[in-house]
Design brief:
Blueprint (H helix, E strand, L loop, with lengths): L11 H6 L4 H12 L5 E6 L8 H13 L4 E12 L5 H11 L6 E9 L3 H16 L5
Parallel strand pairs: 1-2, 2-3
């Protein structure tokens, strides 16, 4: 389950309830409801670009340290228009996130290129980098 999607990019529940830890409570409640379900964080801008990688690492470590039933971390991979995915950058950011110590799942992937052969090459580069990593 993706308990609270894209939580790095918004704190709606925390803001409305004036409780900065309410995101943890959402996981606790979901885990209590069914401890056998695999609970995930899921966010974008954490592997395709480095803008939020360190924030996502900190979030994953926080959830794991609070023992709220975190099973894994989802990574949405959205690559820009005519931008070839950088396998070295992808590997580096996955290495960073792997320090949380939970499985990483690629939950979304898209590339953009006008030429279909270029687009296929972009997908091959991204998929190879993602699925050759031991944490994915």
């Amino acid at each position: 389950w993706d308990v609270n999607n894209e939580n790095l990019h918004g704190t709606w529940y925390q803001d409305r309830l004036h409780d900065p830890d309410y995101d943890l409570e959402l996981f606790r409640e979901a885990h209590r409801a069914d401890p056998s379900v695999k609970l995930f964080l899921n966010d974008y801008g954490v592997v395709s670009y480095s803008g939020k990688t360190s924030d996502y690492l900190a979030q994953g470590q926080r959830f794991k340290a609070n023992n709220v039933g975190l099973y894994g971390m989802g990574v949405q991979c959205h690559f820009g228009n005519e931008v070839r995915p950088d396998p070295n950058g992808i590997k580096h950011r996955l290495d960073v996130l792997s320090h949380v110590g939970v499985p990483i799942w690629a939950t979304e992937l898209d590339v953009s290129a006008a030429d279909e052969n270029t687009r296929a090459d972009f997908y091959e580069a991204a998929l190879t980098a993602l699925y050759s990593h031991s944490s994915v």
